[in-house]
Amino acid sequence: MSPGGAADAADGGASGAAGGDAGDAPERVVAVPCEGADVLALFDLATGDALGEVPVGSHPVHATTCRGRTFVATMGERSVTAVDPDGEVTRVDTGVLGPSHFASANGELYVSCSAGDVIAAIDPVELTLIDRIGVGAEPHELAVGPDERRLYSGSRRDGVVDVVSTAAHEWVGAVDAGPEARVQGVALASDGHRGYAVDQDGGRVVAFAPDAVGNADARGAASDETNTQEGAVLGEAPVGGDPYDLVVSADRVFVPGRADGTVHEFSPDLTLEAVHEGFSRPVDLFKTNGRWWVLDAEAARLRSLDGAVVDTSAPGLVAAPVGGGRFVVSHYDDDRVSLVDVAEGTVWTADAPAYPFGAVVV
User: Fold this and answer.
1) How many C-beta neighbours within 10 Å does residue 262 have?
2) 142, exposed or middle or buried, with CB in 10 Å at 0-12, 13-18, 19+?
């Protein structure tokens, strides 16, 4: 996304987002959805200079890049917003409210629509809706298998992990996460042999076999058959209070407990390896420079699992790794964005429009 194009979209013809000529254009731009301002805010990754704002629609939350464009999930709309490199904005109809989380498979872009109980499949080149796939109530996070044949979606109200065929654009079944479960985070191991789901209400992490659910007619076809297979569950383990998401590596599964300040660390079979304490409200983990770092939504710092600390300008809700041991941190409640280096500390902090949420680098 060129900064000049972004400024044109926002300001109606500024010659360059930072006021310079084409030679001043930054090599990399940070694009941040700002939920309270309905814009995508742009910053120079190297300097933190503000480059402009692109109006994208109501309640933008997550963003992703695909086929040279930036796509923004606008939860208050019945559409996804696509932003071209020159700043041109296109709305891609989803037909239902609540676009939330993205995933890509087989050259297509998928977005969960939490208010419409569907996953929308989008052509990221033609910017058209390909299909809507009915899934469980309040679909949230998405995960894709390494062969891209199937997509997995957590249902917050039905307590299942829905399984979707990406070739047929059909719901093929669901993994039952247990009575009264509220499935939030969903992730797959890199080899695709195990999947994991977080039950927020039950304070559990559940392991499942991704291919255990067979084929079935699409949800909503002529019967009440849901093809939910409890046998797909491989095991479960308790975690800290109010778990929301999880991080899966080649040999570990991490689940932050937002309510009690813990991070539970498991082996792939959910054998407990450690309980890391002393955090305030841990929300995410990232590995860089040989360490696992924890983002804390109530502490102005990054802290590694082995105790190293990097101070930040404010607590962070979302962080996006940008390489070289650096993260773009969105300080949601403080309306700021920072570039943080785990070796050097905060590189820059910039004011942002209201409620910056995630970030992508384009």
Assistant:
1) 21
2) buried
C-alpha distances in angstroms, 317 versus 140, 174, 213, 282, 314? Answer: 18, 30, 34, 9, 10
Q: What's the whole-model pTM score? A: 0.90
- What are the domain boundaries of the chain? 1-33+40-49+278-362
Task: Give per-residue pLDDT as tens, 108-144.
Answer: 999 999 999 999 999 999 999 999 999 999 999 999 9
Residue 65's identity, in one-letter code, is T
Phi and psi at residue 311, to the nearest 5°: -75, 145
pLDDT tens column, 212-226: 886 444 344 333 344
Q: Count Cβ atoms below 10 Å from residue 277 Cβ, excluding itself.
A: 11
Query: What are residue 85's DSSP bridge partners?
Result: none
| CATH class in words for 1-33+40-49+278-362 | mainly beta
Residue type at position 240:
G
